[in-house]
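User: Reviewer 2 asked us to show a designed sequence for the structure in our supplementary figure. I'm pasting the structure tokens here. Could you produce the per-position amino acids so we can include them in the response letter?
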């Protein structure tokens, strides 16, 4: 068995949709389980629909038109478009007149529509290509989660339930990515981009031989191609390398994707739906085993906030750090980078929405300074941070073009040298390092393997 996950650009663009269907048909002997995202752009429309002040009547039309147009362009015919409308209208009647933004549970019910519709369309595409298939609602099939709507976490019993749920029935299962449900049947979603995570959860549950993530790039690249157009595919990565890249902004994989794969030691492949013959990236426990070290890729996450708490009393005092982290923990503020000095601690926070209450409490511990509009840049490669000279090289390059480095984290991870710059300097820094570390060369040798 293999898992084949197709993202929004693969299922939402008719030419890619045909490729995706053909790829599944050609692998029928491997017993594929398909996982699909919503059609490209649909989740954004649904997010808008759920927001305060939305023109829900107009958005409802746009959502239906998008599916109808797609069903026509993909040659699936009007019956499928009618099926999509039949599923949507009850949701729309329930929520159209709700005042303000939809509540978290109702919002997830609306967001889930995208994947429920696309799994039906994909199954129809397979049937048209002569492959028996059935749409599977992951929630009904056993992907049970906690009730943190919008960012739900699968429960441990999901694995056994899903293995049974997916096996029950004939034809290729086309499973909805991104969505689950609570034990008492309420709809949940796993966080934006979560279909990759679903693919890995399903793969681990059924003990797949491989998890294939089919997308619009030929693998995990040496940088975000929107920042560095000449970025190249990285042929082999370790779980640790791919996780760090995903966590620090490489959107091609949802940050949690590698966890289920690591638990079961399942290989993950990232492949291009439009160019299926290209080798893509293979992610395994050891990556390039025995190949020494190299910088593989540079990721970057924008919109970061840094918080510095300074206390003159920290000098020779104990308990200061514990108190600071206790406050962050209690307010569910996730901290990424941490640096400390004798009298202060600085941390970066990705999601600043929960920060205000924590800040009010931190004021009682020390002097607090908040800096916004920052970015974390992560230079990733097994063993690279320990390499003598890498940090010197990186910061000399940045200093040469006047980029101020606000925080540095090195040594905490054996795969990642990360640092903080101003948002406005982030793209420039990534481009400069991509070239300066030789990642644009066919064989990034001179610096990366010096
Ligand atoms: P899908 O719809 O297939 O899930 P996503 O848009 O979620 O696709 O992810 C693919 C996109 O991720 C690419 O088109 C690219 O713009 C972005 N991306 C960011 N960093 C990387 C990287 N290092 N390698 C590949 N893609 C990346
Ligand atoms: N459709 C969802 C989103 O756009 C999940 C995914 O694409 O992975 O976030
Ligand atoms: Mg994605």
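Assistant: Here is a per-position design you can include in the supplement:
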């Amino acid at each position: 068995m293999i898992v084949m996950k197709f993202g929004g650009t693969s299922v939402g663009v008719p030419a890619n949709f045909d490729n995706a269907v053909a790829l599944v048909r050609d692998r029928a002997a491997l017993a594929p389980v398909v996982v699909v995202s919503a059609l490209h752009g649909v989740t954004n429309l649904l997010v808008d629909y759920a927001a305060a002040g939305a023109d829900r009547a107009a958005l409802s039309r746009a959502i239906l038109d998008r599916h109808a147009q797609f069903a026509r362009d993909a040659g699936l015919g009007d019956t499928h478009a009618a099926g999509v409308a039949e599923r949507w209208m009850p949701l729309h009647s329930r929520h159209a007149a709700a005042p303000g933004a939809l509540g978290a549970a109702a919002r997830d019910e609306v967001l889930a529509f995208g994947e429920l519709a696309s799994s039906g369309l994909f199954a129809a595409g397979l049937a048209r290509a002569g492959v028996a298939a059935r749409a599977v609602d992951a929630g009904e099939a056993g992907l049970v989660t906690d009730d943190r709507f919008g960012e739900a976490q699968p429960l441990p019993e999901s694995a056994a339930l899903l293995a049974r749920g997916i096996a029950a029935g004939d034809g290729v299962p086309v499973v909805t990515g991104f969505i689950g449900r609570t034990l008492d049947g309420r709809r949940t979603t796993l966080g934006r981009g979560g279909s990759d995570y679903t693919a890995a959860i399903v793969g681990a549950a059924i003990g797949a031989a491989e998890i294939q993530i089919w997308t619009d790039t030929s693998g995990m690249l040496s940088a975000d191609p929107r920042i560095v157009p000449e970025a190249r595919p990285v042929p082999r990565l370790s779980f640790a390398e791919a996780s760090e890249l995903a966590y620090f902004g490489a959107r091609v994989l949802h940050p949690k994707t590698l966890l289920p794969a690591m638990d079961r030691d399942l290989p993950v492949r990232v492949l291009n739906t439009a160019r299926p013959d290209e080798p893509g990236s293979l992610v395994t426990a050891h990556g390039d085993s025995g190949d020494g070290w190299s910088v593989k890729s540079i990721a970057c996450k924008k919109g970061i906030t840094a918080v510095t708490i300074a206390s003159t009393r920290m000098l020779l005092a104990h308990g200061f750090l514990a108190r600071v982290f206790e406050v962050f923990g209690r307010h569910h503020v996730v901290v990424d980078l941490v640096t400390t000095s004798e009298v202060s601690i600085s941390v970066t926070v990705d999601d600043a929405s929960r920060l205000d209450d924590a800040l009010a409490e931190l004021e009682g511990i020390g002097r607090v300074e908040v800096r916004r509009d920052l970015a974390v840049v992560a230079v990733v490669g097994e063993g690279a941070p320990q390499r003598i000279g890498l940090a010197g090289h990186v910061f000399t390059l940045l200093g040469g073009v006047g980029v101020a480095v606000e925080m540095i984290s090195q040594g905490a991870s054996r795969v990642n040298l990360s640092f903080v710059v101003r948002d406005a300097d982030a793209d420039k820094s990534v481009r400069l390092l991509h070239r300066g570390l030789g990642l644009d060369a066919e064989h990034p040798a001179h610096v990366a393997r010096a």
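For the response letter, you might also mention the following. The pocket of aspartic acid (ligand 2) is lined by residues 7-8, 37-38, 43, 114, 177-178, 192-195 (CB under 6 Å). The first strand starts at residue 2 and ends at 6.
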